[in-house]
Amino acid sequence: MAPVESGIVQLEQVAFRYRRRAPWVLRDVTLTVPRGRVIEVNGANGAGKSTLLRLLAGIVPPVSGRVSGRPARVGYAPERFPAAQPFTARAYLAHLARVRGVPFADPAGWAERLGLAGSLDTRLADLSKGGAHKAGLVQALLASPELLVLDEPFAGLDTETRTALPALLDELAREGASVIVSDHQGDLRELPGIVRWQVAGHTVTAGDLPEEYTVVEVTVRADEADELVTRLTTDGYRARRR
After folding, report:
1. What are the residue ranges of helices labelled H in the chain?
2. Angle at 160 between CA 217 and CA 238, to 5 degrees
3. pLDDT tens digits along 195-216
4. What is the rounded (10 degree) CA torsion for 21, 26, 30, 36?
5. Per-residue confidence at 8, pLDDT binned at 50, 70, 90?
6. Are 74 and 149 in contact (CB under 8 A)?
7. List of residues 6+ apart from 30 with CB closer than 8 A
8. What are phi and psi of 16, to 5 degrees?
């Protein structure tokens, strides 16, 4: 893997908790977001992955420490898209495009690529879970973000869109964007050149498997494999079906 030559966002001794006297979610996090790369964020449920993504996207400020270098164009999609809004998908996306000063084609190019074009005239509240999730992804992509932050973007997507999304994210990175993705389902595992971050123990470690980790192969019945992979990834392990 080629060395990373430049960074975009810097986290310096960042700490965060949601209330005064509440337990720390993250502490002493110092990281550089590499430019033009896809970064997969791993960790057990409750480890602080979503909090890290919100800090990077500027949704919440750090309690202490410093986040610097965040670009002007940031796209962010939360794990759960707030679909209870009185708009059609088209009206919602067109409004956000106007707010961000970017054109919104009819249908939008990103909506076409993510399989949402046929549902643009559906009210957000009437979209399926996968359709609402696609609307969240499209709004994050509207402004051609230099920093794209996605929290569990594969959840609820149909097979065709799930298959296409890794190549789309890789394309954005090749064009210079930094793409940060929390993905417990393992859809990015085979993406070449991916950067991995591990969230555990209130901190974040950049890199692949630490020395104290190893790979264990398990053979199970074919009809039990998906359930086992889901259970292991929910518990914070990296697991995929061969």
Report:
1. 49-57, 89-100, 109-113, 129-141, 159-174, 225-234
2. 25
3. 999 998 899 988 754 555 555 7
4. -140
5. confident
6. yes
7. 11, 12, 13, 14
8. -150, 140
Q: Which residue from 107, 102, 106 is spatially nearest to 140, judged by alpha carbons? A: 102
Least trusted range by pLDDT, from 34-38, 73-77, 184-188: 184-188
Backbone angles phi, psi at 91, to 5 degrees: -65, -40
HSE (CB half, 13 Å, CA atoms) of 127? 31
Q: Which two tokens stand for residue 114?
A: 């993510």
Confidence of residue 182 (pLDDT cuts 50, 70, 90): very high
CA distances from 58 to 61, 98, 204 (A): 6, 21, 18
Task: Give the tokens for residue 32.
Answer: 């550089």
Separation of alpha carbons 37 and 54, rounded Å: 19
> Can you tell me which residue has the tokens 């707030």?
82
Residue, of 46 and 122, whose pLDDT is higher: 122
Taking a C-beta distance cutoff of 8 angstroms, is the pair 67, 14 a contact?
yes
DSSP-derived secondary structure letter, 8: E
Give the Å distances, CA to CA, from 83 to 91, 96, 118, 129: 13, 14, 17, 9
CA distance 145 to 143: 5
**For residues 60-87, average pLDDT:** 92
Residue 240 has what pLDDT? Answer: 62
Sheet with 178-182, strands from edge to edge, namely 74-77, 147-151, 178-182, 38-42, 195-200, 203-206
User: Residue 19 corresponds to which amino acid?
Assistant: R
As given in the structure block, the two tokens for residue 27 are 């502490």
